[in-house]
Every structure is written in C-alpha cells, then in structure tokens.
Write a structure and sequence with these properties.
118 residues; mainly alpha; two-stranded antiparallel sheet; 2 strands; 55% helix; elongated
Length: 118
C-alpha cells in the first residue's frame, strides 16, 4: 500500500491506519517485529519521519512496543481495535459532505447576486 495524495488524511495517519488494520486482522501478530523505519518508508512511499510519527501514534495506543536496539514489535496483548469505528467515520464524512454541498449551493446563490462595479 502506498500513501494516496488524494486521501484527505495525512500521510502518517494513512500509514498508522494501514498498520492498525493489519494488526486487527491478524496480518501482523502479537510479538511480530515490524520492518525498520527506512523499509516501511520505502514501502509506503513516504519519509522516515512520517513513519516515525505513525509508529508514535500506534505506540501511544498500546498496539506496538519498541525496544532499544532490537526494534519495534506488535504488542503482546494489544488492545482491541474498535471495529465499529469505520461506520462512525463514514457517517461523519457523509455529514461533512452534506454540509459542504449546502455551503457550495449558498455560495453559488451569493455569487449570483454580486454586482460588478465599473
């Protein structure tokens, strides 16, 4: 998976979300060592700092642990990833889309009332 410039989420959020999905689905298992930052950066097509930020998020969530000199691993007992988060996000995005459409229609009406001065 590479980061999409068309995705409204930041690059680090896309990387964190993908790794989170892999952990939740069992693609990455408890105790499994993650690739190094440089390799992850290459895989996702982002800078190493972007990967570091994504890993910081997952570490704060308790999904991964880092060991100095050894690497980063999927936590032995990672907290359950909320599977119901996707429908909530979809609803929120639908609400945002509806609000933007309303704003655009109001803007179109306002622009129709603007009179150009000589």
């Amino acid at each position: 998976m590479t980061v999409s410039p068309d995705d409204p989420r930041s690059a680090y959020a896309q990387v964190a979300d993908d790794l989170r999905r892999q952990i939740a689905s069992g693609g990455l298992t408890a105790g499994q060592r993650l690739d190094g930052n440089a390799k992850l950066a290459e895989r996702y097509g982002v800078a190493a700092m972007t990967v570091r930020h994504a890993l910081d998020i997952l570490r704060d969530e308790g999904l991964i642990v880092s060991q100095q000199g050894r690497g980063t691993f999927v936590a032995s007992d990672p907290p359950a990833v909320e599977t119901e988060q996707a429908p909530t996000l979809a609803n929120e995005l639908a609400e945002i889309k509806a609000a933007l459409e309303l704003i655009n229609s109001r803007l179109d009406r306002l622009e129709g009332h603007v009179v150009d001065l000589p």
